[in-house]
Amino acid sequence: MIKTLINKVAVVTGSAQGIGKAIAIKLANAGADVIVVDMDVEGIGQTSKEIESLGVKALGVKCNVADANEVANLVSKIQETFPTIDILVNNAGITRDNLLIRMDEKDWDIVLSVNLKGPFLMTKAISQVMMRQRRGRIVNVASVVGMMGNAGQANYAASKGGLVAFTKSVAKEFASRNITCNAVAPGFIETRMTEKLQNAVKENYIKAIPLNRFGTADDVANAILFLASDDASYITGQIIGVDGGMFMR
Cα-flanking dihedrals φ and ψ of residue 78, to 5°? Predict the structure, then answer.
């Protein structure tokens, strides 16, 4: 891999496993030092070891991104170790699926808190560092569901739709400081959850995807690597679909 991120420092939330881990590893492979942020302490340690085996630095920090005090402590810890923060990937997210009529208020609140308030707090804190540097890349992980909706996911769709609008607003606010803000919107991605689906269910999902397959975590990570690099220096406020053509804008 071409080392497009040498001497860059990247923060990736929700990076102890799954798509977030793939993103962290991809950025590290490109030369970035990576801060692994998650609530899963064991997963943080495993991901950090994998990153360090690539010859770059890793810092693992347990942090609830929906808690302003924890986010402030996270940024302080980062600045104790690294001179800059060049890249922020807001990936942390949760689901609490149910039909709207059966959805508990607490399930609405926690999804909006982690998926939307989390990126707000992280962006607000880290953008202050980026503004002093007069450079930075912010990439949010939204979802195709945030643009097309999905039955049984009103809370998740609302959080990701809000993240799309948040991305565009941040891009406009920070452009003058040479800080870009974009989002990727994954569709159906191969995860431990999709592995458990019955074949008939998988086939039904795939019918809605023109490329006729689920995406992979690497597909998402590749798009984020591009947006985090200098190759994307003239791209901001954009939502890049990583969905196999499922939702064409």
Answer: -60, -45
